[in-house]
Amino acid sequence: MTLMAFLLVVIMFLAFFVFFSGINPQEMTIFFTPDSSITYPVTVVVIGCILVGLFIGYGFHIFGTLSFGLRSWLRSRNEKKVKEIDSVYREGVGRLLSGDIKKARNLLQKAIDKDPNKIEGYIALASVASQEGDLQEAVSLLRKAKSINGKSLEVMFKLAATYVEQDQDDAACKEYEEILEQEKDNRKAIRSLRDLHMKHGRWEEAMELQKRLLKAGLSGNRVQEEKEQMLSIRYEVAKQKLAQGECDQAITALKQIIKENPSFVAARVTLGDAYLQCDNKTEAAKIWQSGYEELGRSVFLSRLENFYISQEDPKTLLSFYSSAISARSNDLVLRFFYGKLCLRLEMVDEALEQIYVVENSAPDFPQIHLLLAEAHRRRNRIDEAIEEYQKALGVDNQLSLGYVCDKCGKRNIEWQSRCDVCGTWGSYSIAFRKLVENREVVSPTAPQAGA
């Protein structure tokens, strides 16, 4: 406002005051107490009230302006500090990702020093400690972050993962359980907790978690994968019941699994074991025979061979092989096992007949040389036996053929229902199965006269 405008306002106010005083000559008495009062013209009282109101309003205006300015200054200062801390934090994370661990530690520690409540800084610094191999420091940093924000899922997941690295699986389980208390359908936490229970053979707990996972709204191919996982977990629960002597429950569970997935090899094998444990030998043999007829997996032949030999009933097994070969003449695995059985029964000529068929029809593999060596030895053809043994070097002399996981290639002497490396159920096959699978049978060439 210019000086002239201000003077004009003052003149107008005085003129209004004089005019108002002229037409309102009355006086007003204002009592403060019964004995004290003041008397002023009405005009003075009214104008005074107006001026006091203006001064009060102007005072509030000034106070509001100063308060707003102070808040703006504080906010600007805080934003500047936050930006500075974020800049240091981002640079530290960048150094961490680029592999400059020492510089990353210094920058992240600086960010935490400036803002002790920045949980992202603790998480990143914990990653630095993990990469340096100091898992205990990583746990301490993550616990500090959790004390700042006990509901941070990121912190709890990171803490659980660090516990797993430390082999503190029980502590990791507690973290995942806390996550599920906050979010009961958190699929990542359910899977992680389930996997830990599976790792330690707590199959019933794993099964309950798998049920929760299937109810958690999965979609697409994931649903089928988790249903297959559920069958595998149910199989392990049934297997545990069998180990505990609960044969009837185990048999019922295994039958249901086979009904839902007829190609579940491990369930069929174990169902035969369960019947055998219940002294139902006839049903056990039927399960293993039908298992091989339907699935063609060599473990069933091994089970049948051991069973009938232990029962001193090779005749029934020989009859099974004879019928099976008639029905599946191109099955080289079947012929190989038949030859192996004949060799065990000292039926050397029959054994050689089958072994030569396999040798002529399939690529070279050590187990065939082992059987040939044994056949030659039992015919007292020592030179030929030595030659075949040399080819089969490394195979034990009890005719154990060994098994290999179709999924990851892990080898084992004995058949296992589940691979302990990749975790796949029913993946173990005889080591050479893929070499002879779907091959055309080629009969051996008759030796020339005098050969």
Structure in words:
The chain is mainly alpha-helical. Among the domains are: 72-149, Alpha Horseshoe (Serine Threonine Protein Phosphatase 5, Tetratricopeptide repeat); 326-443, Serine Threonine Protein Phosphatase 5, Tetratricopeptide repeat. The chain has helices at residues 3-23, 42-98, 101-114, 119-131, 135-148, 153-165, 169-182, 187-199, 203-214, 221-243, 247-260, 265-277, 281-295, 298-310, 314-327, 332-344, 348-361, 366-378, 382-391, 433-436; strands at residues 27-33, 36-41, 403-405, 411-412, 428-430. The strands form two sheets. The chain has a three-stranded antiparallel β-sheet, with no helix packed on it. A hairpin with a 2-residue loop joins strand 1 and strand 2. Helix 16 packs antiparallel against helix 17 (348-361) and helix 18 (366-378) runs antiparallel to helix 19. The radius of gyration is 44 Å and the shape is elongated.
Write a concise synopsis of the structure shown.
This protein has 20 helices and five strands. By secondary structure, it is mainly α. 31% of the residues are buried.
Descriptive key words:
451 residues; mainly alpha; Serine Threonine Protein Phosphatase 5, Tetratricopeptide repeat; 5 strands; 70% helix
